[in-house]
Amino acid sequence: MATMHMSVRAEDLSQMPKGGERIPDPGVLVIFGASGDLTKRKLLPALFHLYQANLLPDRFAIVGVARRALGDAFAAEMLAGIVEFGGVDAADPKLASFVEHISYFPLHFDDPAHYASLKAELDRLAAERNIGPGRLYYLATAPEFFAGIVENLGAQAMAQPDNGHAAVVIEKPFGHDLDSARELNQQVNAVFHEDQVFRIDHYLGKETVQNLLVFRFANGIFEPIWNRNYIDHVQITVAETLGVEGRGPFYEKAGALRDVVQNHMMELLALVALEPPSSFEADSVRREKLKVWRAIPSIPVTDAVRGQYGPGLVNGERVIGYRDEERVSPESGTETFAALRLSIDNWRWAGVPFFLRAGKRLRKRATEISIQFKQPPLLIFNRLHATGPCTEIQPNLLTIRIQPDEGIALRFGAKVPTTSQMAVCPVNMDFDYASAFGKSSANGYERLLLDALLGDQTLFSHRDGVETNWALYKPLLDAWGARTPDVFPNYFAGTWGPDCAIHLLEKTGHLWRNDLGRQ
Ligand code: BG6
Asked: Do residue 328 and residue 423 come from a single domain?
């Protein structure tokens, strides 16, 4: 397929306003579970990127908290992580001053006495550096510790500091099902008011995901056709080539539906489907998302399929099957692939199917949304029976590439030059993020951390949204949990998943798009 590339000239970019980013008030960021991978690979690199961009206040402290006695080794390990995972030059002069803001405090998450010591240490640090009472607690631990940490923070009055503001950031998974999510919400809200709670979905930190709102609501031409009258169907794919990467015990309990579909994919779906919010503010945006989720009838088992990968070839390399992964049951019934069809019962979307699929060890890494428009009402060119390489008229297709090669493409039919007949060939108008704006080393946590520090909840999940999504998937989760499929594994690693996913779409005469990525 031919492609026209669109780009922004470097000189245009240098003229662009840098944006009046707000800078958070002085405060202490306390990361629980700081010895884990997330802190080193994502959180500290993102914090350093903010620091490089002068977006952190002059007076701040980052305190890592975990069980091990790490002492000064913690800051050194974080520096190494910033260089390795943050694309930062080890000779960057800002590293030395940044590291002065980092310290470590060993703590047993379930020992109340340790929290009294932690509180004293935070107060001491804040007084010494004139930081003030602002506190942001980031829970990056295993989920079983969330409730206990929150309770202990409450017991020490650390959630409501004197004359100050405190907030808590909670990593996913937020609950394992509807009941556990409700219980966790109650436990968290018993200590923190909802406007102090920041439930992270890291997909919302991705530039391309935020751009969905800009694309829809900063441009006038798409909104009039963004509905059932013009759109045939929507596909959302989160395809990964990675397997479970040593996270066997976690994944055994999760599976693709809980791990990716019920949260990340539902966020993507909501941004595609929501009505225009009246402003880009937490309440407006979150209210519109909730309306979308509430308009989705719960998904019957017959509209969903699951898969599990066996051995195969991924990117030319032989890989083992899921059941042979470390600490995974050889009879595991956990799905590593899920695909489903859902509908949104409102005026805009009635009758438009949304197809979602997510899987590990698939052919290619690609997260994409594609909006397929309806065929023109009369196909006059096909009637000429043109012959040649491109005679098939395909419907317009808008693809939004979330990752890895971020961009947006619009497919349309063009006349093939120099043919005597009206041969039509599909071509792409393509906007590519990297060539327009340059490659960024940001990992998405920059935006989320900055917003949490600023107290802006727009890109974070609300209690009601989390519970609505768990409720939506409850029948499916219950049904799948009750029975292991007879034919597992049912797809080879390195393919596009099990055949049942193809059949799911065939029922309505649709096909999955497998030419993902930049064409
Ligand atoms: C995480 C899941 O939330 O998202 C992982 O737990 C998954 O299993 C990851 O690999 C995908 O995120 P990304 O940003 O790589 O698409």
From this structure: yes
Using a 6 Å CB cutoff, which residues line ligand 1?
Answer: 172, 240, 259-260, 367
Q: Are residues 278 and 340 in the same domain?
A: yes
Domain boundary among 116, 150, 171: 171
CA of residue 58 to ligand 1 center, whole Å: 33
Q: For a pocket test of ligand 1, which of 37, 38, 174, 202 has the largest count of ligand atoms closer than 8 A to its C-beta?
A: 202
Ligand 1 atom at minimum distance from 206 CA: 14
pTM: 0.93
Closest Cα to atom 13, ligand 1: which residue? 203
Q: Residue 411's domain is classified under what CATH number? A: 3.30.360.10
pLDDT band at 18 (very low <50, low <70, confident <90, very high): very low
Domain of residue 400, residue span: 205-506
Instruction: Please compute the mean of the pLDDT values over residues 227-247 and round it to a whole number.
Output: 96
- Cα separation, 514 vs 339, in Å, equals 14
Do 167 and 210 sit in the same domain of this protein?
no
Active-site residue numbers?
264
Count of the separate structural domains present in the chain: 2
Q: Would you say residue 345 has pLDDT above 90?
A: yes
Q: How far away, in angstroms, is 258 Cα from ligand 1 center?
A: 11
For residue 17, name the pLDDT band (cuts at 50, 70, 90).
Answer: very low
CATH number at residue 96: 3.40.50.720
